[in-house]
Amino acid sequence: MPRQTNMAQQEDVFKKIVSHCKEYGFVFPSSDIYDGLGAVYDYGQNGVELKNNIKQYWWQSMVLLHQNIVGIDAAIFMHPTTWKASGHVDAFNDPLIDNRDSKKRYRADVLIEDQMAKYDEKIDKEIAKARKRFGDAFDEAQFRATNGRVLELQQKRDALHERFQKAMNANDLDELKQIIIDEEIVCPISGTRNWTDVRQFNLMFKTEVGSTAEGTSTIYLRPETAQGIFVNYLNVQKTGRMKLPFGIAQIGKAFRNEIVARQFIFRMREFEQMEMQFFVKPGTELEWFSKWKQTRMAWHQALGFGAENYRFHDHDKLAHYANAATDIEFHMPFGFKEVEGIHSRTNFDLSQHAKYSGKKIEYFDPETNESYTPFVIETSIGVDRMFLSVMCHSYCEEQLENGETRVVLRLPAALAPVKLAVLPLVKKDGLPEIAQEIVNDLRFHFNCKYDEKDTIGKRYRRMDAIGCPYCVTIDHDTLNDHCVTLRDRDTMEQHRVPIADLQSIIEDKVSITSLLKKLL
Ligand code: GAP
Pseudo-torsion of CA 18, 21, 23, 29, nearest 10°? Predict the structure, then answer.
């Protein structure tokens, strides 16, 4: 992503990424022919390959690289008591507020967070102006500590942050409304401050199972995959003869009736999670929490997007059952945003399920001859947010020497939807046949695409735009020397290589294994 200097430019880049996703078959609005469905998206022919590669990278890093982590695939529908036990029926809420004039509904916490972001933007603007004025001599830390305007804005922001945290921790809905009034926050649509009171709104989707004749019961679409792991703890521990510490991993859909659906696939109503619950001996959880923080950060950074684009954000407000929690945030075009959560959830979930099911959910420790309820460290990452972070970092508009602009997705080769494009220079003289033979040979090893339409230059651009790391061109010399021209997406360098060597040159660089090896 080109370095941007202000918010407007960043928004512009983001818009381009969204339309690129549609134009090149990565992400479409759901039910597009009916003008879409809010906060629901479909993955296209290239998107699904990239998404599958992300999932494979995560799955293999968990299940292949750890002898003590196994996977499951639980159903989306679960017994309704699950959600009573987990606390989601009573407490999985967002604080909502309506504007009476526009009739639009907002999340009160998001309105306030946006207000804090506005203070940050104003501070950034002051800094950018000063940097321009002072040039190389500019000292940002000193400017922040001494400039009157910046200090005033920072003080207002900090005071707002403190007040907001207090209101959220105390679940004080009146105070949230008062903050909105005191900060003079207006509805972005009507521009007025005609607000209703703040109310709680449960995010779970409800549906019914059973026919009317038999009677129906209300069930929920799961809002997280984690509970499918907790309710299977005993099954997996016993049948897998698992010893603590051990983990259960799962990838699957989750559903939340998000009111503020924004930023494309960042906040969706139907999305996918990759979650791993790691069961440990009580008292060792904070040590494991710290280990998983490092392990997960290493997983992200192995993609090569630069350590400066990630940060931990430790939670100020801990859920009542958690004793530590952090987010891994990634630098998106709209700021640092949460991609993954790592939580030390104590024994809350297993104890609650034991209470509500009446089953003993414990672990017998053969070393100490005692039984106890394991504590849990959870790592929880959204596939779609991860996808968005990969797209945002990889999208690049590049000025070429000949004055043209090329759009290239600099995807990590192991995640790219297509690894090799096979391009006959012309559609005759036996060149397409050789190209097809290459595809037929290599398709067992990685995803290859045959393309014979348009000029070779246009075909290269199409492949750059979907992030294909390698192209080979078959020309008339190939008929005699059995070599092809191999082109590298990023450097655009080309060199001749024997057809017989293609597999060994490419396979290692584009495999998920190449990423996994960086983790060891
Ligand atoms: N089991 C813990 C849990 O669900 P969370 O922080 O609510 O924790 C974990 O969600 C991850 O799921 C987030 O870090 C994010 O990547 C993803 N996620 C959550 N809500 C989402 C949404 N509405 N759209 C897309 N991804 C979402």
Answer: -80
479 Cβ contact list (under 8 Å, min separation 6): 429, 430, 431, 434
CATH number of the domain that 179 lies in? 3.30.40.230
Probe residue for ligand 1, chosen from 332, 380, 388, 390 as the CB with the greatest number of ligand atoms within 8 Å? 380
pLDDT tens string 177-225: 999 999 999 999 999 999 999 999 999 999 998 866 666 788 999 999 9
223 Cβ closer than 6 Å to some ligand 1 atom: no
CB distance 381 to ligand 1 below 6 Å: yes
pLDDT digits (tens, 9 = 90+) for 303-319: 999 999 999 999 877 88
CATH of the domain at 314: 3.30.930.10
Q: Residue 26: which domain range? A: 7-85+204-399
Distance separating alpha carbons of residues 411 and 304, to the nearest angstrom: 10
Domain total in the chain: 3
Using CA positions, which residue lies closest to atom 18 of ligand 1?
Answer: 382
Judge whether 2 lies within some domain: no
pLDDT per position as a tens digit, 251-294: 999 999 998 767 899 999 999 999 999 999 999 999 999 999 99
User: Where a domain ends, among 180, 202, 224?
Assistant: 202
- Together in a domain, 372 and 382: yes
What's the mean per-residue pLDDT of the chain?
94
The response to whether residue 345 sits with its C-beta less than 6 Å from ligand 1 reads no
